[in-house]
Amino acid sequence: MIVxxxxxxxxxxxxxxxxxxxxxIAAADVICCARLGEHASGESHWQxxxxxxxxxxxxxxxxxxxxxxxxxxxxxxRPVSEExxxxxxxxxARLVEAARAV
Length: 102
What we know:
Layout: H1 9-36, H2 45-53, H3 57-75, H4 82-101
């Protein structure tokens, strides 16, 4: 895991969360393609959350959690918090697990 590569998880926290966000988005696309025969292709990832909501509201909420921290992880001068890392890891894990199951 990327957090194991650093002396302090905070050192790579933003990169870690960014990878989790991308994994969650990709998993949402897989789920939507498998269940609905389409995936969101607009400019906003929030459209993917709305489409995923047609399949599973809990997973859509998980994607919303990831999208909510995306800008902070990618562009904010402050690093993501430990709680952001934990919540993001749980949300991404559920999405990836669901994608593997379809």
